[in-house]
Design goal:
Layout (H helix, E strand, L loop, with lengths): L11 H11 L4 H5 L3 H7 L6 E3 L6 H12 L12 E3 L8 H10 L5 E3 L9 H5 L5 E4 L1 H4 L18 E4 L18 E3 L8 H10 L5 E6 L7 H6 L8 E5 L3 H9 L5 H13 L17
Parallel strand pairs: 1-2, 2-3, 3-4, 4-5, 5-6, 6-7, 7-8
Length: 282
């Protein structure tokens, strides 16, 4: 009688998932092998949800359909990164419902204000990266609480709020290693300095700027009143593209800043240099 090798039950899903990650083009074939492979592989299709891209419309529709089915679709548990910025594919209420069901989300970015009803939902997720306006979530800048469960597992925080004074208490966030403070070229220097002094575990403190202020560019760069080498100024042009790159494990502004600081620690870059670009001059 002919015999066939049998993989241990716990090893079989790992083999299929590894094949799917290494060779995404074979995913449609893997989905049709058996129901169990469908259950293993389908969640991989929805790990990264970028609704700023119109080509993701089918993903948005599938997730919404899965969230409103009874029972909710199992693949929702595979969603890990969600960026609904600037999209009309989900309503405010639908986004809230979807986040309630996508219990494995580790990375969430939203450019518009989220009201306080989102706070308990986001706080139940195993978030490691968060990019939002904090003030609306906590119903005011003076009520932002970095000891709140929302920040329990966060390592990367990108603050969208226009003001940064509440960042003075960011040291209460127990796992935070990467922080972007708001302000850009108008960054509150004293607050950035205070945060760096209060947070020795921070790997980088980033200021993102869309452009430098014309004729005063050189002066602005030369007079940065911060000496901590963990402070990094970067220029950006496409935030969504950067976010998607990070979600897929490619370099983003965080990893570029990390590398910049590491080279400064190795004395490959002068400690007094904080900008990752040359300012544009007239």
């Amino acid at each position: 009688m002919e015999t066939h090798p049998v993989f241990p039950a716990e090893l079989e899903p790992e083999i299929f998932e590894t094949a799917a990650r290494l060779h995404p083009s074979v995913i449609p074939v893997l989905l049709r092998i058996a129901r169990r492979t469908l259950l293993w592989i389908e969640p991989l299709l929805y790990e990264v949800v970028d609704l700023t891209n119109l080509s993701s419309t089918h993903i948005a529709v599938a997730i919404l359909r899965g969230a409103t089915s009874n029972p909710p679709a199992p693949f929702l548990r595979g969603v890990r990164h969600v960026l609904p910025n600037g999209a009309d594919m989900w309503t405010f209420e639908q986004t809230r419902t979807i986040l309630t069901l996508c219990t494995g989300v580790i990375d969430f970015a939203y450019g518009g204000p989220l009201d306080h009803t989102y706070l308990p939902i986001l706080s139940t997720l195993p978030l490691r990266r968060l990019s939002v306006h904090l003030s609306p979530l906590f119903e005011g800048p003076d009520r932002v609480d970095f000891a709140h469960p929302l920040f329990a597992s966060l390592t990367h925080l990108d603050v969208y709020d226009p003001r940064s004074d509440f960042c003075g208490h960011v040291a209460l966030a127990p796992a935070l290693t990467h922080l972007r403070m708001p302000g850009g070229v108008h960054l509150a220097w004293h607050m950035a300095d205070s945060v760096l002094a209060a947070c020795p575990r921070l790997t980088v403190l980033v200021a993102l700027v869309a452009h430098l202020p014309g004729p005063s560019a050189n002066k602005w760069v030369e007079h940065i009143p911060i000496t901590d080498i963990r402070f990094v100024v970067q220029m950006y042009s496409n935030y969504a593209r950067d976010w998607v790159a990070a979600a897929h494990g490619r370099p983003d502004f965080w990893s570029v800043a990390e590398d910049f600081v590491a080279r400064k620690r190795r004395k490959q870059i002068d400690a007094s240099i904080f900008c990752l670009f040359r300012p544009r001059t007239p």
